[in-house]
Design goal:
heterodimer; A: 114 residues; mainly beta; 4-stranded antiparallel beta sheet; 49% strand; globular; B: mainly beta; 6-stranded mixed beta sheet; 0% helix; 51% strand
Chain lengths: 114, 112
């Protein structure tokens, strides 16, 4: 069990560019979550998947954000036309089917929009 | 909606001191409650949990009791070590959903 992995770990981009992040959950975990964390704050929920179905999206997830989990395994989070306010740590977590309340977090992708 | 309020930091302690971090919550129904810890340079890790009222979660010498009457889940450790220096987050999961709502985090520094 290698844990939740995220790629890249750091991303610097210019305002207006598109970025995509990847998350690989722990194998056999059917639920996958995305959170955003800004400096000095706790993580805020963005969206989650059960298998390949996206079951809930936060109001924080504007139209510029889209997430997919096409085969129920890895997931991608894309941000289009990035803005400086998008600068944050993007966290991915996964949980097993028998203990849905135990979320295991990845190391995060730190996004800086210049 | 669901929300969590936790004690502001930073908190600085000497080794072997007693640590308490207060956490209160607002939620409908019967949420599950958690403490997560983030050590320097590492990702969030689940420290302990309690899924129903009066449950006590414990791990690594830390304890927290789910108090529904006071809507609280305070974290305690009787004798901290330098290795306990980290950011601690209180969180809840609503009774009918799977997403976590986090507090703002409390930074704890333990000095030798």
């Amino acid at each position: 069990d290698t844990g939740v992995s995220q790629d890249p770990r750091h991303k610097i981009t210019k305002r207006g560019q598109n970025v995509t992040f990847r998350c690989d959950p722990i194998s056999e975990h059917n639920r996958l979550y995305w959170y955003r964390q800004t400096l000095g704050q706790g993580p805020e929920f963005l969206t989650y998947f059960q298998n390949e179905a996206q079951l809930e999206k936060s109001r924080l997830l504007s139209d510029r954000f889209s997430a997919e989990r096409p085969k129920g395994s890895f997931s991608t989070l894309e941000i289009q036309r990035t803005e400086q306010g998008d600068s944050a740590m993007y966290l991915c977590a996964s949980s097993p089917p028998t203990r849905a309340y135990e979320q295991y977090f990845g190391p995060g992708t730190r996004l800086t929009v210049t | 909606g669901n929300s969590v309020t936790q004690m502001e930091g930073p908190v600085t302690l000497s080794e072997e001191a007693f640590l308490t971090i207060n956490c209160t919550y607002t939620a409908t129904g019967y949420p599950s409650l958690f403490w997560y810890v983030q050590y320097p340079g590492e990702g969030l890790q689940l420290l302990l949990k309690a899924t129903k009222a009066d449950d006590k979660g414990s791990n690594k010498g830390f304890e927290a009791t789910y108090r529904k009457e006071t809507t609280s889940f305070h974290l305690e450790k009787g004798s901290v070590q330098v290795s306990d220096s980290a950011v601690y987050f209180c969180a809840l999961e609503g009774s009918n959903d799977y997403k976590l709502s986090f507090g703002a985090g409390t930074t704890v520094t333990v000095r030798a």
